Structure formats: C-alpha cells, structure tokens
Amino acid sequence: MNLEFIESGQALTIRLKGELDHHSADESRILIDEKINKGKFKKLIIDFKNLDFIDSSGIGFVIGRYKVIRKRNGVIEIINANAKVRKILDMSGIGKIIEIK
Q1: Sign of the dihedral through C-alpha 58, 9, 7, 50
Q2: Coil, helix or strand for 50?
C-alpha cells in the first residue's frame, strides 16, 4: 500500500495506491490516524483512483476513519473509486454514511 497525503487548510486528502486489505489496513490506519491527530482537519477525502482492490478489512479501515473524523465534527468523502471497488463499497452499504463521488 502506497499512501500520499495532501493538506489544504482543514482538508486532508489521502491518495491510496495498491490494495486495501488485511495486509495493509492496519499499517495504513496507524499512519493516517497519526496525520489526522497532528492536524486540525475537519474534512477527510479518501482518493481511491489508484486503488485496485478493497476487502472487508479495507471497509473496516474506512469506517474507522469515519469515526475518527466525526469525533472532530468533520466529514469524510470517497472519490475516484473504479467500478470494481465501487461495487464492493455499494454492497457494503458504506454509501449510506459516507459520500462517494
């Protein structure tokens, strides 16, 4: 898993590359939570443009980041999910709590 952080005011964009699965979810969670806790971010944007695969651990990862940012009264959105990843997100029901663009 490759992560890229882009900060813009109170928004943090995270670009994920590769696979978000049980092998990468914990390490990614630690890095992202450290970044969130060091900043004053109210908006978290997760960019899935270069994400090839997501499994249930990845869904759990996203929901965990949702909870972290909501504790700060912030919002989260997912952008650029390909058709395969979008199908998994839709099946999980995650779109009911997180905006997917």
Answers
A1: positive
A2: strand
Burial class (CB in 10 A: 0-12, 13-18, 19+), 96: exposed
| CATH of 2-100 among 2.40.160.60, 2.30.40.10, 3.30.750.24, 3.40.1280.10 | 3.30.750.24
Side chain identity at 87, as an amino acid letter?
Answer: K
Q: Which two tokens stand for residue 35?
A: 């970044």
Q: With a threshold of 0.85, does the pTM exceed it?
A: yes
Q: Which two tokens stand for residue 101?
A: 């663009």
Residue range 84-98, pLDDT digits in tens: 999 999 999 999 999
